[in-house]
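@channel sequence for tomorrow's demo:
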Amino acid sequence: MVKQGYNVEEVVVYLGELQNADREVIESYLKRLAPEIAPGVRVRSEVEKARFRCRVCGSEWSLQDLDLDEDIREAVHFVPEAIYSFAKCPRCGSRDFEIVSGRGVRLSLKVSRGEG
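structure tokens (generated this afternoon):
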């Protein structure tokens, strides 16, 4: 919620790469809804790249570093935690890793003080 006396200038939707959400569809809906919520607001989206970190050796890697076929990517799209069943650390082979970024959807608001 934005405090009274402030205006929302821009909404940025960060779409996690693991979600594989359709940016165009999400932006289209947001651009239709945004003027009703905050007149004049700009809306855009960005894909937040997936990054992983091995808990055993500390290595970090991206989704592009993994050789996942389309069926696996589709499974991960619906259940991002499924990545733990299909991926392992490229350096040491461990399946004990964490998702550092690129999971889920988050919003960022740019606000300014209103007039008056």
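heads up for whoever presents: The chain has a mean pLDDT of 90.
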